[in-house]
Amino acid sequence: MEIQRQPLEIHYMPRFSKNLNEIARFIGRNSVTSAERLLDRIHERIELLAEHPYIGRAAMEPVLAQRGIRIIGESKYIIYYLVEGEEVIIYHIRHSARQSAALCDLFDEND
């Protein structure tokens, strides 16, 4: 008999929402439809984490991996998240071509 587990709650950090809005505005300059489709795909990917929180892999950056930060991709974007108790905390999203050198600063408790 398989045990049914409740989906985890998704919690968005302010920085993620800000980054996502910036991505949508940038893409929306050329095509509102493309921006809407990308946002839909990103949200679908994040909703998948509620049911399958460990589908992503550990972050490659050692300082992030030590904190338990995981990543999952959608299109050309990388979503950074943490599974904590019964919650998935979505911290950040960035284009995969962007540098990741200062990512550890993005995961402050207050942001």
Structure description:
The chain is an alpha+beta fold and 111 residues long. The protein has one domain: 2-Layer Sandwich (YaeB-like fold), CATH 3.30.2310. Strands 1-5-4-3-2 form a five-stranded mixed sheet. Strand 4 and strand 5 form a beta hairpin. Helix 1 runs antiparallel to helix 2. The chain is globular and about 45 Å long. 22% of the residues are buried.
- The CATH architecture can be given as 2-Layer Sandwich
Please give the oligomerization state of what you see.
single chain
Content of β-strand: 25-35%
- Range of helix content: 25-40%
Average pLDDT reading: 86
What is this entry, summarized?
Helices cover 36% and strands 25% of the residues. By secondary structure, the protein is α+β, with helices and mostly antiparallel strands.
